[in-house]
Amino acid sequence: MQKDKQLGGVLSRLREELGLRPTEFAQLVRMDRTEYSSIEAGRRSVSDKKLEKIAKFYMVPVPLLRLLSDDSDDEFVSKLRDMAHRKVFGRTGLRKREIRLKEIRGSKPEQNGRRSVAAR
Q: In whole angstroms, what is the distance from residue 96 CA to residue 34 CA?
């Protein structure tokens, strides 16, 4: 159950970075909204199949999501977790997810953080 809470926290942070509500995210990945909210809250385990779907949306490999939710005190695991955290939550990872979200929603991504000429 503790692992589920930690994984839920990682998923919640990824979703919040994109400014999405749980219901919006659930719709985007075609999941039941109550099921997804329960997964984020750690009240429900996520199946491998559904975790694949979530990971694919965020463009983060499932093993990295699992590593981020691992609270092992092992020094090696801790170093791997720190590296994974920088990769997933760094500026480049966030930018890729923002672009992906805009593509899904049907709008064109901004170039270098600026609005496109057509959007001005």
A: 27
